[in-house]
Amino acid sequence: MSIDPRTGPAPAPTGPLSTIDYSERIPNNVNLAEDRRLQRALEGWQPKFLDWWKTLGPALPTKDVYLRTAIAVGRDGWAHFDHVPMEEYRWGIFLAERDPDRVVNFGKHKGAPAWQEVPGEHRADLLRLIVIQGDTEPASVEQQRILGETAPSIYDLRNLFQVNVEEGRHLWAMVYLLHAYFGREGREEAEQLLKRNSGDVDAPRILGAFNEETTDWLQFFMFTYFTDRDGKYQLGTLKESAFDPLARTCEFMLKEEAHHMFVGTTGVQRTVERTAELMKEHGTADILPYGGIPLAVIQKYLNFQYSVSLDLFGSEQSTNAGNYYTSGVKGRWQETRRKDDHVLLDDTREMRLVEDGRIVTKTVPMLSALNLDLRDEYVADCANGVRRWNQALEDAGLDERLTLPHEGFNRKVGVYAGHHVSPDGEVLDEAAWQASEGEWLPTAEDRQAVAALMVPEYEYGKFAGWIAPPQTGINDQPVEFDYVHLAEEGLV
Amino acid sequence: MTLTTTEGAAVDFDAAPDRYKHWRLDLDGEIATVNLLVDEAGGLVPGYQLKMNSYDLGVDIELYDIVQRLRFEHPEVRSVVMTGGLERMFCAGANIRMLAQSSHAWKVNFCKFTNETRNGIEDATQNSGQTWIAALNGTAAGGGYELALACDQIVLVDDGSSTVSLPEVPLLGVLPGTGGLTRVVDKRHVRKDRADLFATKSEGYRGATAVEWGLIDETVPRARFDEVVRGRAQAAAANSRRPRQATGVVLTPLARTEDRDSISYSHVTARIDRDARRVDITVQAPAERPPADAAAVLALGVDYWPLAVTRQLDDLILRLRTNEHLIGTWVLRTAGDSGTVLAYDEQLAELADDWFVNEVRHYFKRTLKRLDVSSRSLIAVIEPGSCFAGLLLELALAADRQYMLAGVYEDVDPDAEPATIVVAASNDGAYPMGNGLSRLESRFWGHGDGLAAVRAELGKPLDAEAADRFGLVTVALDDIDFADELRIVLEERASLSPDALTGMEANHRFVGPETIETKIFGRLTAWQNWIFIRPNASGPDGALRRFGTGQRGDYDLNRV
């Protein structure tokens, strides 16, 4: 692999690692060269993936992009940065190191050795979980396909592409599992992952949020903050799986996912910073005429993305989730750090729901409410980002604050589905909801107003007027670094 | 866990005339007399006395042996009289104390085996030229009358007190589970209201009414009883097609080696994987081409490959079914040369009119039927070196699923010949199932075009692609997928509810028309097995448990 004179070599790995073999057509650390079955399956799938990438991947033509590529899976030094033509990105298969002593940490198989093969008993469940997870990865690439045309900076454009290629790699990770462990059925499912497309009426993506249009960059940042964070939590539960290859795959995916969180957190933060700056400068919240996104609109975008992301956790009470847990297929977030028996047969918890027009609490068996358990973890994590953003408002001397809406707000799945709940947690009737919906969720006008601000800024180091520049660049490069070289036609 | 008798020994199906405890076989030229005289203390399991000529599995294992030996060892026997050795009581049926103390699984397996033996008696009458005649020298109650129902004709002594009866419903709160209800209406054509009266009247009916209703054929005073029975036996013998001058084939003891996890015979091996709850059964093709003609076939006798392999399979099925309840999946493989198997297949068809070959064919048919009604998941695995052709293809067709390797195991034997299967004429009717259809017809039930397409391929080796295209295998996968797919399928199977699997498989296996056999193994058995586990029968106050205590069953009166 060439070493870019401007960036130097990747840092020397210090943690335990298994080197990724880049001499292969498909980079991997799973000994692909010696696995005839996997080789055949993946080599058959690879051209289909590239076709998909060319057709439904980023639309903006580029020469190359300053991208991070995984070179080893150890704690440090797993990434290498270089300018790479995107279609030549080395998508590959990387699993975290295997711990030969790993055991099942929860459920009825607790204490037994982790599974290195799919047990027939759980094949259907595991296949379904992997397909659902796998379906989300290419979906977001499809959703974000045309965003490059309105990038607020070359720096942001690079981050978008980095997210896109990594979502592509996550698709590879899931496809690896399907190919390696699920035989012909797995191969068929892997093909279907490329055949379903976001927003396609005939063959939509499995989960609703992944068929929503990504209209603009504010929504992209909200998506990477809230919806990718859902992905992080789902991966966190699969990382606990008794099925070791899935656990190791997800462990490594989580490392990559952290970057997406970073893009979302800082993207919203920089938008809020610029908004605060304009509010102060002009002494008004209505900063649209000055080229900024009003805080109220940011709040509406937040409300929307947060609520549809909560829906991704599924019903608060779920027999499937309980079965997955008991059978060892899917654990809880940070399972091994929990201080309980990891079997949960006798545990209960509180759950809120709407009853007779009021939100009430009832006690339910813990095993039945594991989706809620995971969602609670997620909600707490989401609140951290909001605190950061509010710090920017406070630093600017403003009194306005962003808030997470109530968990029942705008929900289509679970106990709140079919009810109207205001962002403050007030149960509303249909008329009251209709009257205020436009104050809480982005209206067509709001989206148009934001879209009008989305003009591309492709000059190195320059930023669109609605967003503040970042503090630092990527990989210690300056902010004005040439992160993306656009193709000639891209510049036109 | 191996289900065993209470002494801890597995049930053995090896019986021989010199060791019969409960039956006496009298041979008199063309007429054989089978005499039931149960050794009261000779129960298979301790805890009950076989009074009043009542029977348990041990009694029935001997009966099965008799039926088989009459067919193979005695070509000269053209009719068989079944009678009892006790005064005034022909047979009181299955022993109630035995039933009451048995586990559910034991009862179910016991009923299945006894039903198969009754069907075998009917098969002898229909297909062997050995007409069975029940000479009821006393009362035939419950399973005793059901034994008689399996015979072609029933004669009851007219002594003013002997009756035929099915007292299970009124006395025991269960059904006559050995085909009684079915045969009364379906075989003997007794009107349903009379059948209803009969099956609820515990003492049953004496000769005159029994004859009038069709429950029996004739009732005769004691003085003329033997003469009438003999007359019927002679008449039946006169109509038989069995050869006048022929030598029988002695069913010598099976050579079998066993250890904890395997059972092996010369042509059949079974290896049990207890952790996986699975047994891998391999049936070996013959090494030699078939002998030249009928005389040479007969000279080989029990060593004639089709008979040898059938006996071994039959014994294996019975042992696994009775002694290995936890082994829920049977994986069926074959090994050897398809050409040789097909040569035997052709010979069995060519010599079908020969009495011995006829017996072999029908025995193979009955053994396949045993497989059909076995409550185990049957998975056929078709790999290079296998010989699923003609009669051995029946094993694959009997299976719930067929997995076929396309190509060869590249890493094991890249030069092997890829597996093929061959559908032969014998698959199209020589070995019908209980529903009267061939397994091929059953497979293509409702798909006449699919059946026609396969019929056009008779005799041609079909590779995995073709077998898949013609719908003869469930999946054809190459070696890259095969082993893992099979492993997962078998694990998945082992994880499902055994009860649901038994029910599901029994439903899928028998398409199309109902016959007496399918009704017995379906309707009668399924209801009986449900009734067996209901408290009204087997609860502490149930009729079966209370029988003989002086108290009647205390029922939950809700109709379900």
Automatic annotation (TrEMBL), chain A:
**Family matches, as InterPro entries:** Aromatic_CoA_ox/epox (IPR052703), Benzoyl_CoA_Oase_BoxB (IPR017635), Ferritin-like_SF (IPR009078), RNR-like (IPR012348)
What is an example of a GO molecular function annotated in this UniProt entry?
A: dioxygenase activity
Sorted alphabetically, the keyword list is: Dioxygenase, Oxidoreductase
Q: Which Gene3D superfamilies match?
A: Ribonucleotide Reductase, subunit A
Give the record's GO biological process terms: phenylacetate catabolic process
Asked if Oxidoreductase is a keyword of the record, the answer is: yes
Annotated region (Disordered) at 1-20
Q: Does the keyword Oxidoreductase apply?
A: yes
This entry carries the following GO cellular component terms, namely: cytosol
Q: Which domain of life is it from?
A: Bacteria
Q: What is this protein called?
A: Benzoyl-CoA 2,3-dioxygenase component B
UniProtKB/TrEMBL annotation, chain B:
Q: Any idea which UniProt keywords this protein has?
A: Lyase
CDD domains listed in its UniProt record: crotonase-like
Gene Ontology terms: biological process: fatty acid beta-oxidation
Taxonomic superkingdom: Bacteria
For this UniProt entry, the molecular function terms from Gene Ontology, in alphabetical order, are: lyase activity
PANTHER family in UniProt: ENOYL-COA HYDRATASE, MITOCHONDRIAL (PTHR11941:SF54), ENOYL-COA HYDRATASE-RELATED (PTHR11941)
- Please state what the protein is called: Benzoyl-CoA-dihydrodiol lyase
